[in-house]
Amino acid sequence: MKFKLLAYLLLFTAYFANAQQKVIQLYKGNAPGSENWTWQEAVSEHNAANTRKVYNVVHPSLGIFLPDPAIATGTAVVICPGGSFQTLSIDNEGNEEAKWLNEHGVAAFVLKYRVIHSLTNDPVSEVTANYKTQSYHDNVVQLFPLALADARLAISYVREHAAEYNLSPSKIGIMGFSAGGTLAAASAYKYTPANKPDFVALLYPFFPAELQSEILPDAPPMFVTAAADDELGLAPHSVDIYQKWVASKHIAELHMYTKGGHGFGMRKQNLPTDKWIERFGEWMGLEGFLKPNPIAVR
């Protein structure tokens, strides 16, 4: 009986170490700039994207995933899922990456940032129908500063609470996919000491030149990956920011896959893109972000 109980406890501990442990709200009360939003956050389980989508986010939050203290590195990653600024691919570009990072001693904070208001319960179809319209473009322009504020605040929150989560305040990075990659890339510009990312990972980001500004002298190291056959035509955005980072004498690594399309995330396609996160792990190790954490609770 004692053996069965011990086995159960060990199994529960192993599961818990790789599951979301709590959720915190980024703002006390209504988020600035969207005080009048009255719609309710929802989840689309069945859609053309074949992945779970969160939409109508009004109150930005962080889902917190912490690694086993025995393997903790003190490194954390804020993860910004993609979804065309109207949805969040919360599993394929969020929770699944968080679990992989936990297995490698890295804490993860999956960000639900504010997105464009969906008028139906099928936000994926709304995006497909409206993606090339002027009204959609205008909505993105209005939404972007709010979502970027959420991403910056997420970095600040993790740094401010580093001791609580057994983290190093100088090992806090941000990872973003597609639209989330726009936020992650933008966070590498015009930062403050509180919200500066210590490293940045960009997955098939949308990041045109008009969103870019001066690369600061202490800009963070950057990992970039995309597929050349990205059906949204975003591969050049990854090449552009990589080239500018290297030209400004900052650390950068680029993986441009031949095939993989847009939005591959953790989806298995039997292609080299299936292993991108392993390449990211290798890069983190090379840059010193996977060293054992001397302040971790053991």
UniProtKB/TrEMBL annotation:
GO: which molecular function terms?
A: hydrolase activity
Residue ranges of the BD-FAE-like domain? 126-191
Q: Which Pfam families match?
A: BD-FAE
Coiled-coil ranges (or none): none
- Which UniProt key words apply to this protein? Hydrolase, Signal
Q: Does the keyword Signal apply?
A: yes
Q: State the signal peptide span.
A: 1-19
Q: Which sequence ranges are marked TM in the entry? A: none
Checking InterPro entries in the record gives:
AB_hydrolase_fold, BD-FAE-like_dom, GDXG_lipolytic_enzyme
Tell me the protein's name.
Alpha/beta hydrolase
